[in-house]
Amino acid sequence: MNGWLGRFGLFLEKTVFPVSRFLLFIGQFALVMMVILTVVDVCLRYVFNRPILGSYELTEFMMAVLVFSTIGYTMAVKGHVVVDLVFAKLPQRARDILECITSLIAFILFAIVAWRNAVQASTAWGRNDVTAELFIPISPFILFVSIGIAVLSLVLFTQFIQSLAKAIKG
Question: How far apart are CA 55 and CA 9, in angstroms?
């Protein structure tokens, strides 16, 4: 079983991680655009007393894109902060089992969050929700948040399968 499970985990990794890397590039682009917008807005505000209309709304949307496009990649490369005071003192088998359990719980929770965000995007689409100043539709950004969290969920599922294969092998 471990051989099959390990191969399945590797297949998932080769499928899901490139998607998270693609979203990372979208996040990097959003960050650059946010910096440019902020610099231009500040210059126009203080030099010409003419700020960019709706720059706050645009920055909010770009922040959502930035955060939720990079969260899956961060989890894929294990770039998040880990505090393992107790975890490091456990035997390797216990660590593998705990990693398996936490990956599964996190996968389930984030899959639910992604689903509920997709439902919220659908609701916002049906109500034609827009921003107050620029009248930009909100639903595509809520849907993007859902996609980012769904990719995070798939990364967590991949890590669950890989840690399960390790726990069974150990």
Answer: 43
- Angle at 25 (CA atoms; ends 21, 28), nearest 5 degrees: 130
d(CA 78, CA 10): 16
Structure tokens at 120: 């919220």
Take residue 13 and report the two structure tokens written for it. Answer: 């990794």
Share of the chain above pLDDT 90, in %: 68
**145 phi and psi, to 5 degrees?**
-60, -45
Tokens of 133: 């100043």
13, 77 Cβ separation under 8 angstroms: no
- The helix/strand/coil state of 137 is strand
Separation of first and last alpha carbons in the chain: 13
What number of H helices and E strands is found in the chain?
4, 0
Average pLDDT over residues 88-102: 87
Q: What are phi and psi of 48, to 5 degrees?
A: -110, 0
Does 28 have pLDDT greater than 60? yes
Q: Which residue has the higher pLDDT, 4 or 62?
A: 62
Identify whether the C-beta of residue 152 lies closer than 8 Å to the C-beta of residue 75. Answer: yes
